[in-house]
Amino acid sequence: MSEHEHIDAGLMSSNFDMIQSLPLNVKQRVCALKKLQTKSIQVESDFYKRVHELEIEFEAKFKGLFDERRAIVTGEKEPSPEDVNVPILEGLEAEQLAELYKHTEADPSVKGIKDFWLTAFKTHDLVAESMEEHDLPILSYLTDVTTSASKDPAGFVLEFHFAQNPYFTDSKLTKQYVLAFDPEEDAPLSFDGPHVVRAIGCNINWADGKNVTKKAVKKKQKKGANAGKFLTKTVKADSFFNFFEPPKSKDERNEDEDDDSAEEFLELDYELGQAIRDTVIPRAVLFFTGELQSDEMFDFQGEDGDEVSDYSDDDA
Amino acid sequence: MSEHEHIDAGLMSSNFDMIQSLPLNVKQRVCALKKLQTKSIQVESDFYKRVHELEIEFEAKFKGLFDERRAIVTGEKEPSPEDVNVPILEGLEAEQLAELYKHTEADPSVKGIKDFWLTAFKTHDLVAESMEEHDLPILSYLTDVTTSASKDPAGFVLEFHFAQNPYFTDSKLTKQYVLAFDPEEDAPLSFDGPHVVRAIGCNINWADGKNVTKKAVKKKQKKGANAGKFLTKTVKADSFFNFFEPPKSKDERNEDEDDDSAEEFLELDYELGQAIRDTVIPRAVLFFTGELQSDEMFDFQGEDGDEVSDYSDDDA
Question: What is its main location (chains A, B) (predicted)?
Fold first, then answer.
């Protein structure tokens, strides 16, 4: 389904009064349609499973191209002259392109493409907003971002590959999303395609004093024996790397945790994961060059729908 | 790709200065990546073709269920007692449900479900906005809405089935969308999935004086022999039925027609067609009951992205 929809509890139904006033036999016909609706939603769910299988099949076709990209980005491979005969930016006149190349000499000391992924991340709105100033030098060591989908468990993993760096000892950080393709048992009619059920992060082996996801704050004690004294306390700090410590899923939460806000966090976390998987990874060079930007900034089409009734004008 | 993106002419690139300052050998590496990007976009295009084939395959699985729906809506078939043992609205307590059924008797004179499609249309924002008051009595004769996808030409047809009515002689009105699954030759990097290339409507055989897409207006002549006199002129009127006289595609337009605004109209027309195909048809009963509503009205998540960096808080 191309739009997000929302299923309300029956009392909220915008057509409640009309439904209430229907003759009994018509009400029963509507019930029969709802039973059919549950069946067709199950067919939809099977459709989404097949699309996921297609995604797995196509990953193999993308892999060779993405491996070549990594080799060029890291400097493992130098492109051949035939590989480079395309304009570096689209839509430029020949002289503009020439201007772009003016006064540029080769620099044999530069290996690969410096800050390729960092720059792509910074150019994608949603990803950029998850980054803090202190994350940038760390993300400068990012050499590749890959994804692989799986059928069991259904979902996908994002892998962030890092060159050796002074921040942590890991060469790879991972984030996994487990998805559900079946309608929820207690609310099958609210099915709207695959949905996230769990996000699984990874432990980061930070070097001493390098963990940007924590910060020390001094707090004046208000009560107790130490009242009036300052104590140092470690608290969470905003960082892109919190992405690897994802929100808890339903069955990981305590009873006293707020389910709704936890679900919302999980959805937002998934939105970021999807953006990296579906947009940044397959289009990285276009974000690097700055030619591609999320439309969210300037395109609000369809939001109020006003334009749509505008088919006809009165000049005909 | 889950988001809409926008590819700018190179001059608009947000990273223009950085690109300009890259050493020549690094620039060449970026060009090589752009060549790879074109290749991976071709793979994506193949993926979307396969998804379209899956859609065609799944239509057969939906058909039986949608045929049953039509039979119940039109009164061709009465559901059996086992078919109706589900609540008419979701999420109600037993007593609320009982209240909903109170004082309702069967009315043997009512055939099928009156105004089923009209009500579903009125409940879907985007479709509702394309409808005018004078369309409602006509759409009350709508008995079914179906869709079928095809591979050659790639695209889909919407069929609107009507009972015999005093407005037009047609029993079926159709709207076809021809889609392109390949990147555009002159701008392959702006590919963002299948896009509409042509919308094809149908002629409506209106009964005399019943054509709601036209209206007579009296106009005072300003010039010429008839200056000062009132002449009656027929002009286009707003109507849902303008949907069957779609915006012209690129090669149908005259040179002096505004390409950009024509393309925009075609996009908006396609948006409406997609909403009917992907949302109203597969979920009609939920729009009829008013349980499902487009989220566009109240859900603006991700628009400014603010919430996404909100993973961590400072209480840990």
Answer: cytoplasm
Distance CA A280, CA A302 (A): 24
CB-nearest to A274 from B2, B96, B309 is B2
How far apart (Å, rounded) are the C-alpha atoms in residues B259 and B268? Answer: 14
Please, how many CA atoms are within 13 Å of residue B305, restricted to the half-sphere of its CB? 17
And the tokens for A100?
Answer: 């772009």
pLDDT of A315: 39
* Binary contact (B295, A4; C-beta < 8 A): yes
Which pLDDT score, from 0 to 100, does residue B300 have?
33
Q: Which of B88, B185, B244 to mutate to test the interface with A (most CBs of A within 10 A)?
A: B88
Contacts of A290 in chain B (CB under 8 A): 13-16, 18-19
Closest CA–CA distance from residue B269 to any residue of chain A (Å)? 7
Q: Are strands B5-7 and B195-200 parallel, antiparallel or unpaired?
A: unpaired
* H/E segment holding residue A94: helix A94-101
B110/A23 Cβ within 8 A: yes
Q: How many other CB atoms are found less than 10 A from the CB of residue B280?
A: 22
Contact B189, A286 (CB under 8 A): yes
CA geometry: angle A4, B162, B248, nearest 5 deg: 65
pTM reported for the whole predicted model: 0.87
The residue ranking higher by pLDDT, B53 or B303, is B53
CA distance B315 to chain A (A): 7
Task: Please check the confidence at residue A35 and state whether its pLDDT lies above 50.
Answer: yes
Mean pLDDT of all residues belonging to chain B: 88
Among A37, A101, A271, select the one facing B285 at the smallest CB separation: A37
DSSP code, position A240? G
Residues A23-52, mean pLDDT to the nearest whole number? 97
Which of these ranges, A299-303, B140-144, B293-297, has the smallest mean pLDDT?
A: A299-303
Minimum distance, in Å, between the CA of residue A59 and any CA atom of chain B: 10
Strands of the B154-162 sheet, one edge to the other: B142-151, B154-162, B172-180, B195-200
- Measured distance CA(B19)–CA(B77) in Å, rounded: 67
> Across the interface, which of A32, A69, A107 has its CB nearest the CB of B25?
A107
Structure tokens at A269: 């976390």
DSSP A217: E
DSSP chain B: --S-EEE--GGG-TTHHHHHHS-HHHHHHHHHHHHHHHHHHHHHHHHHHHHHHHHHHHHHHHHHHHHHHHHHHHTSSPPPGGGG-S-SSTT--HHHHHHHHTT----TT--S-TTHHHHHHHHSHHHHHT--GGGHHHHTTEEEEEEEEEETTEEEEEEEEE-S-SSBS-SEEEEEEEEE-SPPTT-GGG--S-EEEEEE-----BPTT--TTEEEEEEE--SSTTTT-EEEEEEE---GGGGGSPPPPGGGS-TTS-HHHHHHHHHHHHHHHHHIIIIIHHHHHHHHTT-EEEGGGT--TTSS-GGGGTT--TT-
Q: What pLDDT score does B302 carry?
A: 34
The pLDDT score that the predictor gives to residue A308 is 32
Contacts of A92 in chain B (CB under 8 A): 9-11
